[in-house]
């Protein structure tokens, strides 16, 4: 990385790596993009989750009250592990009667299971809403 404006030593640093755009690699769908990432980064960390042990209420010196989550350490899954879970969920959706180009609705909190299910829908060409 390098400074965006070299005259400003406190300015932003910008990354200097230039990657091809997905379409330049023949990627046309979200599933193809994910499969490309799996192929290129299979054993690297892909998603990390942390167990929530509870929350504390804290008050600042100004009297503002906020909640603070007590979280465990990250547990990481590799691209290959996530890809296997995406495959399993996509097969499960097909076995439940979900079909290509028939929309489904995903209702869930922001969780790893949500993105795995979304990727599974992309894999079997199911639009999500």
From TrEMBL:
A single GO cellular-component term on record: endoplasmic reticulum
Gene Ontology biological process terms in this record: long-chain fatty-acyl-CoA metabolic process; neuron differentiation
Keyword entries, A-Z: ATP-binding, Fatty acid metabolism, Ligase, Lipid metabolism, Nucleotide-binding
Superkingdom of the source species: Eukaryota
InterPro entries listed in its UniProt record: AMP-dep_synth/lig_dom (IPR000873), ANL_N_sf (IPR042099)
GO MF assignments: ATP binding; palmitoyl-CoA ligase activity
Enzyme class: ligase
EC number(s) on file: 6.2.1.3
UniProt key word Nucleotide-binding: yes
Positions of the AMP-dependent synthetase/ligase domain: 69-125
Similarity field: Belongs to the ATP-dependent AMP-binding enzyme family.
Name this polypeptide is given: long-chain-fatty-acid--CoA ligase
Gene source species: Nephila pilipes
């Amino acid at each position: 990385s390098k400074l965006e404006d070299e005259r400003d030593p406190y300015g932003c640093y910008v990354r200097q790596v230039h990657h091809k755009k997905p379409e330049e690699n023949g990627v046309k769908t979200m599933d193809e993009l994910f499969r490309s990432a799996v192929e290129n980064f299979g054993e690297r960390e892909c998603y990390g989750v942390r167990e929530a042990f509870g929350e504390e209420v804290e008050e600042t010196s100004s009297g503002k009250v906020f909640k603070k989550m007590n979280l465990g350490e990250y547990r990481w899954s590799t691209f290959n592990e996530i890809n296997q879970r995406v495959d399993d969920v996509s097969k499960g959706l097909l076995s439940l009667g979900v079909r290509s180009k028939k929309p489904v609705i995903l209702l869930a909190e922001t969780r790893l299971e949500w993105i795995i299910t979304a990727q599974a829908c992309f894999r079997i060409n199911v639009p999500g809403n």
